[in-house]
Amino acid sequence: MRIVCIGGGPAGLYFALLMKKLDPAHRITVVERNRPYDTFGWGVVFSDATMENMHQWDAETADAIEVAFNHWDDIELHFKGRRIRSGGHGFVGIGRKKLLNILQRRCEALGVELVFETEADSDADYPDADLVIASDGINSRIRQKYAAVFQPDIVARPNRFIWLGTTRLFDAFNFLFERTEHGWFQAHVYKFDDRTTTFIVETPEDVWKASGLDQANVEQSIEFCERLFAQHLQGHKLLSNARHLDPLKRGSAWINFQRVRCRQWHHFNGRSHVVLMGDAVHTAHFAIGSGTKLALEDAIELTRLFKQEHEAGAGGVEAIPGVLAKYQAAREVDVLRLQNAAWNAMEWFEVVGTRYCDQLPPEQFMYSMLTRSQRISHENLRLRDAAWLEGYERWFAERALQGVPAAARAGSTLAPGVKPPSPMFTPYSLRGLTVPNRVVVSPMAMYSAQDGVPNDFHLVHFGARALGGAGLLYTEMTCVSPDARITPGCAGLWNDAQRDAWKRIVDFVHGHSGARMGIQLGHAGRKGSTQLGWQRADEPLDEGNWPLVSASAIPYSQNSQVPREMTRADMDRITGDFVAATRRAADAGFDILELHCAHGYLLSSFLSPLTNRRGDAYGGVVENRARWPLEVFSAIRAAWPPERPISVRLSCHDWFAGGNTADDAVALARLFKAAGADIIDCSSGQVVAEQKPVYGRMYQTPFADRIRNEVGIPTVAVGAIFEADHVNMVIAAGRADLCAVARPHLADPAWTLHEAAKIGQEAIAWPVQYLSGRSQYETNLKRAQA
Ligand SMILES: Cc1cc2nc3c(=O)[nH]c(=O)nc-3n(C[C@H](O)[C@H](O)[C@H](O)COP(=O)(O)OP(=O)(O)OC[C@H]3O[C@@H](n4cnc5c(N)ncnc54)[C@H](O)[C@@H]3O)c2cc1C
Ligand SMILES: Cc1cc2nc3c(=O)[nH]c(=O)nc-3n(C[C@H](O)[C@H](O)[C@H](O)COP(=O)(O)O)c2cc1C
């Protein structure tokens, strides 16, 4: 086979040598515009796992890299005068130049032709090639030429960064944060040989501009960074080897990261098969340090597929189209996974200055930074550095205990030598409410009430979950009038019989468990008068429908009733219903009240521009849309005992064009905070039937994180939180204060107790009646885990 690699970076060189090794009869050329043994850039890092993979494919290359690389385990944070270090992270760092030199030598030894100082203009310049590898980097000319085929999706990110080096040697992967009058700068610092350290400086565009760096040339930029990080550099200089940059051109040394992704990875140009590899087809932000790893793994995968064909006796030119299709299919999944993690990590560094630096104490800041990609979880941190994590858990538990009244602390000791509770199992207080742990049974409609009265089903349902260890239980959306119900089976609180029935349940929970009990009050609005959840959900009743009201006269779906646009008199009446229900809820003994302003129900229908088209003072800009929901909030706040908190549940994203986004949710949270809300429960969607949500593990937690840390109000995270590890991660990182868990509690009433046992958490008490069950459960778990 005749192979030409356009671009002699890690991807092109490594593929060339692997293929030559696979079959020395292949004629392989690498065309590179730079001179031999000449390159830009400093060190690159990859993980121990990549090294192992490389060992299997070409031991000579891997051995040479191993001799040259630097291995280190520790990550060290320098933040607000503190130095915090944790271990067990396992990196390999090597100079980019060194890496390329090793690959170039190995190519030469195997008989790959290396052509330097040659600009490849086009794949068409190599008509004799059966296979052209477009390994020409992030600005790939070949990708641009066939943009219509490859369909690249390129997103330029807002932060600016400059890739520098220094002779100051750091013995860990260092992250340095420095505040200026214009905002925060951070440096990513890692040594890669005996004499040199990579030093990448990064900051948001507005801080960069305000600092005058858009007007600075390379030299001035370096001077600025030297001054800013002087105490870390200890007299050493910062160096640039970016010869590809014009030293006099202003601002040019600072670049924006570009996330590249392509729909199609290969193409037949009429003579040759052309395939993208490495940065040409995908990039991963340096916050996760995996661009080189991806490039090398692309090369390995394509070689592996050719080897497979080769071994089946079909390694010739005719195998190429099939191999390329398999290559894309195999690689795009892995790449997407890594790009997603890289995206989280990159975003963390984009918002860190406004969201975390001034909000989180250094200990928590470190935890947040280590878990930024959300690939490294709480228990994973324990595997990396158990001592550090236990120290952090102790710090967290001490602070949590300081935050609750002395009476609630009784019996909770953090004696040295005693394992601290993990963050999930620390108490939390809001006004006069203290919950024993951070797990909330999320509100869930059970459609099992008669005339709005909860019954024995509800007693057993809540009783079981209270005994099951959750710290706080919410009722389902409890409706403030008969016509506020979603379905005829919905629970209500518009009469004294309902109040008394709820009181029986609250009394049971208080009397037999440490759990607290909250009520969610709501009005269905345009989503009312529908069938039970397990019938045709959201469809009108076959008979006995009641009329609906909403912010505007827009039906929820094709088959839905058209609601009447609410008048001011309707607003007054319904506000009164909320107040009456609030008084009854107080009498029933609920500890916290949640106002349901999410999921397209009545109050939510005012908040979203998709469902609120009013031309009066209650429609239009977000302050107007929130006007009546805020009135309701203020009215119930006045009726609710002052020592008991109120939560507001919001749909933080409508998942539909023209609807609310996280920016609106931040604005709404600010308004509710100003009105006296204690905590925001951050849900999303269900506002319009046409929504296109993006689901995934902990998918709504970013809303809780943003609102908590930008608005400065406690939050509840909810949505696909289904393991103790998730709860611990969210709470420990300060992304939320509580975690609401819905569906897992339908599958397992004792979800909290079971999750505690799985992570060996002894801090939680089981009901005394169940203690023998606990010991058997824990023993069996240990056996299964062993
Ligand atoms: C600041 C920064 C830090 C990074 N840190 C890391 C890290 O820590 N770990 C990591 O793994 N990755 C890191 N990377 C990414 C890493 O550098 C790339 O992902 C990796 O080099 C991709 O390899 P590649 O072979 O696909 O492309 P490149 O390494 O970009 O190689 C492409 C080659 O093609 C040549 N070329 C381009 N066009 C032509 C042409 N028309 N004719 C001839 N030759 C051409 C170029 O000169 C270049 O040598 C970092 C990147 C940046 C910007
Ligand atoms: C059966 C069921 C009923 C629900 N009813 C309500 C409700 O009454 N009020 C509410 O705010 N959310 C309701 N939800 C949404 C949940 O509270 C929660 O936000 C959602 O299920 C995501 O959490 P999960 O991934 O843990 O299930 C309901 C969810 C389920 C599964």
List the helices and strands and how they pair.
Elements: E1 2-6, H1 10-22, E2 27-31, E3 43-47, H2 48-57, H3 59-68, E4 70-72, E5 75-79, E6 82-86, E7 91-95, H4 96-110, E8 113-115, E9 131-134, H5 141-145, H6 147-150, E10 152-166, E11 173-180, E12 183-191, E13 197-204, H7 205-210, H8 218-228, H9 230-233, E14 238-239, E15 255-262, E16 266-268, E17 273-276, H10 291-311, H11 320-355, H12 362-370, H13 378-384, H14 386-402, H15 406-409, E18 428-430, E19 433-435, E20 439-441, H16 456-467, E21 472-479, H17 496-512, E22 516-522, E23 549-550, E24 564-565, H18 568-588, E25 592-597, H19 602-607, H20 622-625, H21 627-639, E26 646-651, H22 662-675, E27 679-683, H23 701-711, E28 715-718, H24 724-732, E29 738-741, H25 743-747, H26 751-758, H27 771-785
Parallel strand pairs: 1-2, 1-9, 2-8, 5-11, 9-17, 20-21, 20-29, 21-22, 22-25, 23-24, 25-26, 26-27, 27-28, 28-29
Antiparallel strand pairs: 3-7, 4-7, 5-6, 10-13, 10-14, 10-15, 11-12, 12-13, 16-17, 18-19
The protein binds flavin-adenine dinucleotide and flavin mononucleotide (FMN).
- Measured by DSSP, the beta-strand proportion falls in 15-25%
- The tally of strands reads 29
Q: Mean pLDDT, rounded to whole units? A: 94
Structural class: alpha/beta
Low-confidence stretches: none
Anisotropy-based shape? globular
Largest sheet: 8 strands, mixed
Q: Tally the helices.
A: 27
The distinct ligands, each listed once, are: flavin-adenine dinucleotide, flavin mononucleotide
Distance between the termini: 51 Å
Radius of gyration (CA) equals 30 Å
Helix content: 25-40%
